[in-house]
Design brief:
Distance between the termini: 23 Å
Number of strands: 9
Order of helices and strands: HEEEEEEEEE
CATH topology: Metal Binding Protein, Guanine Nucleotide Exchange Factor, Chain A
Strand order of the largest sheet: 3-4-8-7-6-5
CATH superfamily: Domain of unknown function (DUF427)
Mean pLDDT: 83
Radius of gyration: 18 Å
Oligomer: single chain
Helix content: under 10%
Strand content: 35-45%
Low-confidence stretches: 1-27
Number of domains: 1
Largest sheet: 6 strands, antiparallel
């Protein structure tokens, strides 16, 4: 088992405990970039995790501030997930290209027990036209 960083060992030695959502926060600080491969369009870029781009079940739930395109448009087709509830599909509409139908989705009536999907644009991590890049964030302390 790996040793905790010195600062964490010091806090543990003095009886201080970090909240569960902060454990390992700085130790594995990563960034994610999602790109539409055929066009080279940057879809999303930001920190990995609850406050940025949250990976869940092979998909990526992106906060609006980390979306890098305005080409994802709601197409009006609803969907239902048994445990995440109601969503609408989104198409990727790029100039000079046919739209990529059902490329992403947005939960507009999300499960209250899953706050990391609330009104975030979801992009598939396993779509053949999506490139996912991850790297260590340079601004991690």
């Amino acid at each position: 088992m790996a040793k905790a960083p010195a600062a964490s060992r010091l806090r543990m030695a003095h009886g201080f405990r970090e909240p569960y959502y902060r454990v390992g926060y700085w130790d594995d600080m990563k960034s994610i970039r999602l790109t539409h491969r055929p066009s080279g369009t940057l879809l999303a870029e930001g920190p990995r995790g609850f406050k940025g781009i949250m990976p869940f079940e092979g998909n990526f739930y992106v906060r609006r501030r980390y979306l890098r395109t305005d080409r994802l448009k709601v197409n009006g087709v609803p969907g239902l997930c048994p445990y995440k509830f109601l969503y609408v599909w989104m198409d990727l509409r790029l100039e000079g290209r046919d739209p990529v139908k059902y490329f992403g989705w947005l939960y507009w009536l999300p499960n209250p027990l899953l706050p990391f999907i609330w009104w975030r644009v979801a992009l598939p991590g396993n779509h053949p036209e999506v490139t996912v890049e991850e790297w260590d964030s340079p601004d991690a302390p």
